[in-house]
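can u do me a favor
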């Protein structure tokens, strides 16, 4: 089995300001890299905040020059960065996406497969699961409501997933159910699972925080507080994990 150091960023977004949020991503990413992280996960729509009303005007191409700082940072550090953003489509509505920046590679895109009913007026859904290689581990990407569907976790598992990472926007009322599901996916799929949530308000909703990582038995390795910015770091070595949480 391979070793990998995972990071989950629990942070505060500037509404609709992609450039400002890229700077915040860079701050978290560098902190994670300084502590040995090889992949860092951000919450759902992290580059814009969970601002549904702004989704159409904020939608960008995965190759937009505004993203170049994250492309360069990934190549400079060797860190894989998973960030959320509305992604342009051929429809009148964008995809709700995750951008995966890897060193010296073309930016990859995961398009959320399971759109929540509250998001249907603003986004269209994607059709394909995503799993990518990161230092010998196979990372499956999920976005929020995806984790409520067993088919999604099963689909990435069939593709060889060993680490299942979900960027979410969960309120204090919703985060406990999300954590139960991530623990279940970990134990049923024998996968390490990781969740990054907002710890402050975004899009008129209060983020529930509690970003966390679970081991293959479904036990929590490290978990952030319900409020505020934090960085969850977990070292997966073989079938063992240990972790810590840093204030940001």
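np, heres the sequence
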């Amino acid at each position: 089995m391979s070793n990998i150091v995972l990071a989950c960023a629990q942070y505060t977004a500037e509404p609709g300001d992609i450039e400002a949020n890229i700077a915040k991503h860079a701050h978290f990413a560098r902190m994670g890299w300084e502590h040995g992280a090889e992949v860092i996960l951000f919450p759902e729509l992290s580059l814009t905040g969970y601002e549904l009303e702004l989704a159409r005007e904020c939608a960008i191409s995965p190759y937009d020059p505004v993203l170049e700082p994250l492309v360069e940072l990934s190549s400079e550090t060797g860190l894989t960065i998973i960030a959320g953003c509305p992604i342009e489509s051929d429809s009148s509505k964008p995809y709700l996406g995750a951008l995966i920046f890897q060193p010296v590679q073309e930016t990859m895109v995961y398009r959320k497969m399971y759109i929540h009913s509250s998001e249907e007026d603003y986004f269209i859904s994607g059709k394909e699961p995503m799993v990518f290689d990161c230092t010998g581990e196979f990372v499956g990407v999920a976005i929020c409501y995806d984790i409520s569907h067993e088919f999604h976790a099963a689909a990435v598992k069939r593709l060889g997933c060993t680490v299942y990472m979900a960027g979410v926007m969960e309120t204090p009322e919703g985060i406990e159910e999300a954590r139960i599901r991530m623990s279940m996916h970990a134990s049923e799929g024998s996968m390490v699972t990781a969740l990054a949530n907002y710890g402050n308000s975004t899009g008129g909703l209060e983020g529930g925080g509690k970003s966390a990582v679970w081991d293959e038995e479904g036990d929590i390795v490290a978990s952030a507080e319900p409020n505020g910015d934090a960085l969850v770091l977990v070292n997966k070595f073989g079938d063992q994990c240990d972790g810590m949480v840093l204030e940001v």
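The chain has five helices and 13 strands. hope that helps!!
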